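Most newcomers find our protein records easier to grasp once they have seen one. Each record describes a single protein and holds just a pair of labelled lines. A learned vocabulary of local backbone shapes supplies the integers on the structure line. Nothing more is needed to start thinking about how sequence determines fold. The record below serves as our worked example for the rest of this section.
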Amino acid sequence: MQSKLYGFFYTMVILALASCTNYGKVYKSKDNNAKYQLATELYAKKDYSRAVPLFEQLRDAYRGNADSLEIVYINTAYSYFYMKDYEYASMFFKDFTDNFSSSPRMIECAYMALYCDVLFVGDPELDQSKTSDVINALQTFINYYPESEYVAKCNTHIDELRSKRHSKAFDQVNQYFVMREYKAASAAAVIAIKTYPDIPQKEELEYIAYRAQFLYAMGSIESKRIERLEKANVLIDDYFYANQMSGLHSKDAKETKDKIQKEITKLKSII
């Protein structure tokens, strides 16, 4: 769907530009040298939206001209990159590495493809489902090219993506908690801790896990409350195991544990 929208957009651009005397004539002509010269001039002037349609025409025309085709591919990829169309830019950088594997600029384009993927992942509040794939691809790049000038950048990207992934996981748990969806909050917190054992918000997730389970149990009917309170008790023990008595929520954990014991004792006397 997105590709179709971009295709429609560029078709409209081309039709609009066709009315411009020089550009329109060159675009409609069969003179590939004129197209190449104009596209290169426009690219140098950072007029990427007009350069791209010409470069795209030249990709097919220059199939037998490896040197010129290499420049066309790179300039097309960078044009999309500078227009912040990271999905398309990544695609063209990857195509370059497939078609020009012996080029001196192959490693540069392999890195740029990954960098575009990093930028396309977006902010922490957006879907992070592709983040793991991008992190793995960055690590693969580092393993293949350990002496590359891009290794330090790749490591930085990995750290940033992990941070985004951690923020996304914590924000989701916290949102459940704030919305008083306690069962979901506790379950999501436990999953987040197991999935990301190095997450910086680990103690806060451990707190939400037991606290949300406790509140969920207290809102349950009496016949189910003991079982759910006992689960909260286990989560409190997990909190103490990880943080001892020096945790930020240790006082609350101890007080909650006392409340649980009193509630369970009371319930056993009446049920």
